[in-house]
Write a structure and sequence with these properties.
Mean pLDDT of chain B: 85
Number of helices of chain B: 3
Oligomer: heterodimer
Largest interface: A-B, 62 and 44 residues
Helix content of chain A: under 10%
Helix content of chain B: 10-25%
Low-confidence stretches of chain B: 1-30
Order of helices and strands of chain A: HEEEEEEEEEEEEEEEHHEEEEEEE
Structural class of chain A: mainly beta
Strand order of the largest sheet of chain B: 6-5-4-3-2-1-15-14-11-10-9-8-7
Radius of gyration of chain A: 23 Å
Distance between the termini of chain A: 39 Å
Largest sheet of chain B: 13 strands, antiparallel
Strand content of chain A: over 45%
Strand content of chain B: 35-45%
Number of strands of chain A: 22
Structural class of chain B: mainly beta
Order of helices and strands of chain B: HHEEEEEEEEEEEEEEEH
Shape of chain B: globular
Mean pLDDT of chain A: 91
Low-confidence stretches of chain A: none
Shape of chain A: globular
């Protein structure tokens, strides 16, 4: 069986050849009105003060990122954007990876009083307003190899239609192909448990990664209020990890020798995001309801029986998954942000924010953002921008679980060194972790990271 | 990964070009007595605003050169699109080209005459549109000596005015007027004094006084050109900060009036298309 990334590449090329042939057929002479090549090259390093749980894990890694962006525009305003991405990592061959972040054609025009827009190809879409997690954001798979915070996302093949009018913005997305989440490999840190199988990816749908997923969103601004409602129906972006013999024994998540099989369920999600902007205040809300996800927590006995049946040769993978509970739950983030401008007579601005994360599943919640399960968690953040020529900025975020002992602190420093070079330094510290935490095995994965970035 | 935070490109920057003409006060002939200096100043401000009506829209390119006391330079480059809105503030879209780490970052502003402006920031690395606060008027724009306030079209109603005197400025004769904010908290200055030629009401110089009434900054404007036989736009603006010794030169280029701009280019969907 070819590797998922190779299959994805092949699929993408087929889609684009068809699209390009169609485009050239439709416009025999395409006139290029503008083009632009930009991008970044970043030298990066990460150091872990503590040794990993698994002896094969390394305590430091270096590498680089190349991410160019090509933009082509024809006379009528239609454009094509291409953003390939490559990361080299010195210790983890899995983290050395490439991706097509963006490769899409954009067309738009008038439609009655409003306008239509089509994006065809690979693109990234962001929904939401909160900072501590992106609850309603669901279109793209996260690039978990890049950073455990989930801010970096893989490109997603899509047909994205947007209709904008005085009455708001209506979007439809057809998502023909699923990108599985890729987890760090044997030498890598921040994987928090055993390894996740890269060759075997299981889907609830018989169409597997080719299951057509659909999403829609309606958004509108009412004066100081920006609001959006969204729906998604299709393959989950979050894997349920399944322990199946012989590669995995029922010793739990803390056994580093286990290799887990990712399983993607068919889910349905409804989301709401809203922001109220009043002077220097921002008030934010994200809420979602999801059904169809699978969860083994609380089903240990049923799972144990299914595992025994597989061992005895009387059961298979489906029996393991069926032992999991099919769940339905709601989750929310609510918070506020206030900015003090020109603090103490200086040119600096100080922003303070607080958010509360809620998950109806409580202790059965699964982690979306490592290493925390955000079931009842407070996030306190601050950002200090000096507003100097170098755009110096310091940000800090403290995340605390209100019902457990887990606390993390993230600090980031950014400064432009010249018109091309910039520096990014960050620390991600696990101050304490509750032994009951599902990700207790990740307690030693605090790290420091730096980027020296060249932008062109 | 590098995050471009909202505060990197801080809120409230607006249309530079209309403000040049908006700053023009109308010269009121001396025989129009018995007008008080306050009445003359207000009338000039009102007329100046009216003179820029009907420009429709324009696009332009800005290059800023920031200089510190030691003479070290840093560049900012951006493209601006402005759409005139009847009976309300203008809509504008700014896209950054330099410095390169913020390339593609875009700021959409819907200015309003009475309520607070609406602003959205587009962060290309995350493909995220963020609604941001527009209440920061006195902060520095991109580390330059220009504040958002200096670059925004001032609404006539938000100031009181006073005609001071006439005096020669270069080959022209200028009318010198003072402007004081009605809401002291809405401005970083206690007052501003502007020099405007009597023929075309173009601003040639502005002095800014801080809250302690110390002379903080001086703006000199030049290289004016007239577009559509009516609208004057400056080619060069130099802001000098007398406290820090730093200066910023802002050059305007490639003005294009009545471009193919539509209201929909100034929507959140249009903001995501900006590059």
């Amino acid at each position: 069986m070819p590797h998922p990334t190779a299959r994805y590449l092949a699929a993408f090329i087929v889609i684009w050849v068809v699209a390009l042939v169609a485009a050239v057929e439709a416009h025999a002479e395409i006139e290029l009105a503008a083009w632009d090549l930009s991008g970044r090259v970043s030298l990066e390093g990460r150091a872990f003060p503590q040794t990993g749980i698994d002896a094969s894990q390394r305590s430091y890694t270096t590498g680089f990122v190349v991410e160019p962006k090509l933009y082509l525009e024809e006379a009528e305003g239609s454009s094509f954007t291409l953003v390939p991405f490559f990361r080299y990592d010195s210790v983890d061959s899995v983290r050395t990876h490439w991706d097509l972040r963006e490769a899409y054609a954009l067309l738009y025009g008038e439609l009655g009083e409003g306008e239509w827009e089509v994006r065809l190809g690979v693109d990234r879409v962001f929904w939401g307003v909160a900072e501590s997690q992106h609850l309603v954001d669901i279109i793209n798979q996260i690039d978990f190899l890049e950073h455990p915070n989930g801010e970096v996302k893989l490109g997603q093949p899509m047909v994205h239609l947007t209709w904008t009018g005085d009455w708001g913005v209506l979007e439809f997305l057809g998502l023909p192909y699923h990108r599985p989440r890729i987890y760090p490999g044997r030498g890598g840190r921040l994987r928090f448990a055993g390894l996740v199988d890269r060759e075997r990816v299981e889907y609830e749908s018989g169409s597997e990664e080719w299951h057509p997923d659909f999403a829609a969103r309606y958004s509108r601004s009412f004066g100081p209020l920006d609001i959006g409602v969204s729906a998604f129906d299709g393959t989950s972006r979050e894997a349920t990890l399944v322990c199946m013999p012989p590669a995995c024994s029922p010793t739990g998540v803390s056994d580093v020798s286990n290799v887990w099989i990712p399983y993607y369920a068919q889910i349905r999600q409804f989301g709401l995001d809203a922001q109220l902007t009043l002077g220097a205040w921002l008030f934010k809300l994200e809420a979602m309801h999801r059904s169809g996800e699978r969860n083994a927590l609380g089903r240990e006995q049923e799972y144990g029986e299914a595992y025994g049946a597989v061992l005895a040769g009387t059961g298979g993978f489906d029996d393991l998954v069926n032992a999991y509970r099919e769940e339905e739950y709601a989750a929310a983030v609510v918070g506020g942000e206030y900015t003090f401008y020109s603090v103490l007579g200086s040119t600096a601005d100080l922003g303070l924010l607080a958010e509360w994360n809620y998950d109806q599943r409580g202790r059965r919640a699964l982690p979306r953002r490592q290493p925390m399960t955000l079931d009842n968690d407070f996030f306190f953040g601050m950002s200090l921008s000096l507003n100097d020529v170098e755009s110096t900025m310091i940000k800090a975020g403290f995340l605390m679980d209100a019902s457990r002992e887990t606390r993390t602190l993230g600090v980031e420093f950014d400064r432009r060194l010249s018109d091309q070079w910039s520096l990014h330094v960050e620390s991600s510290t696990i101050l304490s972790m509750d032994p009951l935490e599902l990700q207790w095995v990740g307690r030693r994965d605090s790290f420091f990271e730096f980027h020296m970035e060249y932008n062109f | 990964m590098r995050l471009i935070h909202a505060h990197l490109v801080r809120p409230a920057f607006l249309l530079l070009a209309p403000c040049l003409v908006l700053l023009s006060w109308l010269w009121m002939p001396p025989f129009a007595h018995p007008a008080t200096p306050e009445e003359i100043g207000l009338k000039i401000a009102t007329e100046a605003r009216a003179r820029d009506d009907g420009f429709g829209n324009f696009t332009a390119r800005q290059v800023m050169v920031l200089r510190n006391k030691q003479g070290q330079e840093s560049r900012r480059q951006l493209r601006v699109k402005v759409l005139e809105v009847a009976d309300d503030g203008d809509k504008s879209l700014m896209v950054f080209d330099e410095p390169r780490d913020v390339k593609g970052t875009a700021l959409l502003t819907h200015a309003h005459k009475h309520e607070a402006d609406d602003q959205w920031l587009y962060l290309p690395a995350l493909k995220r549109v963020k609604r941001i606060s527009s209440s920061n008027k006195s902060g520095s724009f991109m580390g330059s000596e220009f504040s958002y306030e200096d670059l925004s079209p001032p609404e006539v109603e938000k100031f009181t005015y006073r005609y001071l005197r006439d005096e020669p400025c270069g080959d022209l004769t200028c009318t010198v007027n003072e402007r004081v904010p009605v809401d002291k908290k809405a401005s970083g200055y206690s007052r501003q004094v502007a020099w405007r030629d009597k023929d075309e009401l173009r601003v040639w110089k502005v002095e800014y006084y801080d809250r302690k009434d110390a002379h903080l900054k001086t703006l000199t404007i030049g290289k004016y050109k007239q577009y559509l036989d009516k609208y004057w736009r400056a080619g060069e603006m130099t802001m000098v900060n007398h406290l820090t010794g730093k200066s910023t030169v802002l050059n305007w280029a490639d003005y294009q009036f009545r471009a193919k701009l539509k209201d929909r280019d100034f929507s959140k969907t249009g903001l995501k298309r900006a590059r």
